[in-house]
Amino acid sequence: MQTRHILKALTYVALISVGFVMLIPFLWMVLGSFKTAREVMKFPPTFIPEDPTLANYKEVFSRLSFGRYYLNTIITSVIPTIITVMTASMAGFGFAKYRFAGRGVIFWLILATMMIPYPVTIVPLYTMAYRAGLVNTYTGLIIVNLSSAFGIFMMRQFCLTIPNDLLDAARIDGSSEFGIFYRIIMPLTKPALATLTIFTFTGNWNSYMWPLLVVNTDRLRTLSLAIPLFNGQYSSFPNLVYAASAMAILPVVMLFIFNQRYFTEGITMSGLKE
Domain containing 231 — which CATH number? Predict the structure, then answer.
């Protein structure tokens, strides 16, 4: 028994140590955003800012249209995330709880799209967007991210854990199918919804390749395009680059912090049933 406790303690120590090591680059960036340019270049380097300042953040906004890029990124991340979560939850519920002709074939065809490498789809997607006049538009940025095969799969797996008797009881009480989805499925699948929201929002927020192809104007540029450009222009001022990068990842970090409990539960339970 004592040996087991010792091994468990050593495991926790090892995991915490590895986690801290992986966290060091992030902490270095955040703390570096509060340093002056002189302190960032100082040798030997300092980890904790000697004279913390917010001037870097103010200067980033003065040198870069950061507010505009932030707004563009929010629009192209929030809207697709909401639509993806809703469509994936409805489709996952349908595949898990309804029997219809071709259900298995359709579901496996959807899963098969996950095996297609993203670079293979770029050319046809851009061709369709160009012919539809969606280049340099918000619609062009958003439309390719309105569905998720992985989201449908995850929501289906989670919905399979919900007893059918619960749905039958709701039908006996006179609830409509949409009422069952809204009043029963949605509350019970909060962990899966939170997990899918984090994955989808993070993917849209960090999207680089598609915005790079479909956007050619500064007016529609997102943070994923602006940060590399800013880094190239101000590479000799890493304190400014740190500040811009810290502001760019802040929404993703906050979203994960507020949904961490649901995220962990969703990852654990979404694969319980085949």
Answer: 1.10.3720.10
